[in-house]
Amino acid sequence: MNRLTGKVALVTGAGRGIGAAIARAFAAEGAAVVLAELDGANADATAREIAGAIEGARTLAVQTDVTQPASVRAAVDEAQRALGPVDVLVNNAGINVFADPLTMTDDDWRRCFAVDLDGVWNGCRAVLPGMVERRAGSIINIASTHAFQIIPGCFPYPVAKHGVIGLTRALGIEYAPRNVRVNAIAPGYIETQLTHDWWNAQPDPQAARKATLELPPMKRIGRPEEVAMTAVFLASDEAPFINASCITIDGGRTALHHD
Ligand code: NDP
């Protein structure tokens, strides 16, 4: 229960879904947690819920838009003033932009990259100077199995997620001599609002849900808490030599050739 005691962690997109689960798990392990979320009301509600459920939890909600470097810098500054320097950053905020490459609009392309890749870089850039100076830090980027595999019609999301792995590896190597670790987590299907929104956008949402649940060898999809457990591990002092790596959490789906 004390694997992150004394650490300050900032989680982007922490108002709901995987980010909220990570914030909750970090607080349960003793970290002070900053919920940096686009929807300020959601951030507040989740921060209050965590503080109410976990005795002694320290949470701070900061309305943040990861597409705006100044907004992310302001969140990191506010975190430092209120709780201390950021030891752990989870770049979790992300959106689905699924389109056909040739009918996709320029706006779709920009929106996807602004959140899913620029947002990750904006987070890294905001915390790295402090981490490098203190010679300590752990950055965890939430990628996706779309970072290795392609599903037709999901363009350009996987392009951005491939970029997240590249960014993770590049920064992990760049700052390894300063004891800053940069890793990624690649979840497969996880049941969150994002997944429900995708099912609901299909012509037959029930059939889409059923098909998704059949895909992984374990015949279920993941839970946000199952991603959070790995984030705790990577954030903790239990993973001191894991750097520039990516841990896949998909019940074995990407290893499966076919049933
Ligand atoms: P959700 O949509 O449930 O949650 C994402 C959160 O990020 C929302 O609270 C959203 O706020 C916030 N957000 C969106 N844009 C911004 C922004 N510009 N600045 C700050 N916060 C923002 O998604 P998930 O929890 O499912 O996904 C989290 C991450 O995991 C994403 O990076 C996603 O790509 C990745 N992932 C998810 C998988 C899944 O199956 N669910 C599988 C693989 C990867 P708001 O509600 O206001 O938009």
Fold and architecture overview:
This protein is α/β, with parallel strands linked by helices and 259 residues long. The chain has helices at residues 17-28, 40-53, 69-83, 106-134, 157-175, 193-200, 205-214, 224-235, and strands at residues 8-12, 32-37, 59-63, 88-91, 98-99, 137-142, 155-156, 180-187, 246-249. It has one domain (8-191, 222-255): NAD(P)-binding Rossmann-like Domain (Rossmann fold, 3-Layer(aba) Sandwich), CATH 3.40.50. It is built from 8 helices and 9 strands. Helix 2 (40-53) links the parallel strand 2 and strand 3. Helix 1 packs parallel to helix 2 and helix 3 (69-83) packs parallel to helix 4. The mean pLDDT is 97. It binds NADPH dihydro-nicotinamide-adenine-dinucleotide phosphate. NADPH dihydro-nicotinamide-adenine-dinucleotide phosphate binds at residues 12-13, 15-19, 37-39, 42, 64-67, 92-95, 115, 119, 142, 144, 187, 189-190, 192-195.
Short description:
The chain is α/β, with parallel strands linked by helices. The chain has helices at residues 17-28, 40-53, 69-83, 106-134, 157-175, 193-200, 205-214, 224-235, and strands at residues 8-12, 32-37, 59-63, 88-91, 98-99, 137-142, 155-156, 180-187, 246-249.
Class from secondary-structure proportions: alpha/beta
Name of the CATH architecture: 3-Layer(aba) Sandwich
- CATH superfamily name? NAD(P)-binding Rossmann-like Domain
Number of helix segments?
8
Bound molecules: NADPH dihydro-nicotinamide-adenine-dinucleotide phosphate
- Main sheet attributes: strand count, strand direction, barrel closure: 7 strands, parallel
The whole-number mean of residue pLDDT values reads 97
Number of strands: 9
Write down the CATH class: Alpha Beta
| Rg (CA only) | 18 Å
Whole-number tally of structural domains: 1
Helical residues, percent: 40-55%
